[in-house]
Amino acid sequence: MAPTCCLSPSITPPPFLEALRHHELLGELSFQEILAFVFRASSLRRDIMLPQVCSVPDDVPPDLLPPSIHEFLSTSTRLSATMVDVCWSAFREVIWTMPTLSELDIQHRQSFQDHASITLYPPHTHCTRADCPSAQTQLPLKKEESCQVVLHTLHGIIPAWSVHLTCRTCGTIYQNNFSISANRRWYYDGVPDYIQVSDHHFVDCKVANLWTELHLKSHVSAQACALIYDSALSAKEELVLEEAGWRFGFKLKNEHVWDAFLVLALTADCKQQGVCLDVPNGGFQNRRFCEAMRA
After folding, report:
1. How many CB atoms lie within 10 A of CB 227?
2. C-beta of residue 288 within 8 angstroms of C-beta of residue 280
């Protein structure tokens, strides 16, 4: 007996493999192209349903797509008009009952909070130093160590692990935001998605941008930014993290806010100039970026 969709008991979506067998043209598409069509069409269910006549029930997908939706799916996925028709015919019942991208994103975040944790890796899987023999042979970085961290995001605080990879040949340490060699931190190109502001704290780039705008437009202090974030977004999650074994403090400090602002500004500036941000690895944190700010 075919499984019935939990969101709409009246519809039994055909499996993807069955749809592929009954529509030969689908064999010309890649898996990524099929996923792109399915997810985008799923996000447009309300737009697809609105132009239909009142006699069409809203729990059944229509036979044809509205012209504007058809054109959008064809243009955004680079599929021909014929292929859009084939994809809709094959997957419309699955599309009509599957979660939207925003719903899947919520489920994804909740799954990691309930059952696992996010892991932050360096962007490179092998050494990138030009003078390192391992870089020439593209040997994978396998020497690793990890530590517990907290991500400060717009959705609250999230437990995570930060993995550091070390090149066995030259000793360069690769972390999520930067590599360490010759007692200096070499930041990677661009602005990090999560800005490291201490050994165990990372701030989402969107949060850092919000703090920057609050400071520039409303003269909100770093202390106020930290207090507002803690009371509005992170306070309810602290007990959960403590029970999960995250042993260090979760509250933001003034210096975390300032460091997020500095790294955001400096990496954005370096990206615009096409140069690499490098700062001392040792010394006091409050003086680490002085040289870069004067440059």
Report:
1. 14
2. yes
Closest CA to 257 of 294, 218, 220, 295: 220
The answer to whether residues 170 and 180 touch, using CB atoms and an 8 Å cutoff, is no
The string over 154-187, giving b where at least 16 C-beta atoms fall within 10 Å of a residue's C-beta and e elsewhere, is ebbbbbbebbbbbbeeeebbbbbbbbbbeeebbb
**Which one-letter amino acid corresponds to residue 50?**
L
Q: Residue 3: its pLDDT value, please?
A: 39
Query: In whole angstroms, how far apart are CA 142 and each of 130, 163, 221, 261, 271?
Result: 19, 11, 42, 33, 29
Q: What is the pTM for the complete model shown?
A: 0.73
List, for residues 239-269, the tens digit of each pLDDT value: 566 666 777 778 899 999 999 999 999 999 9
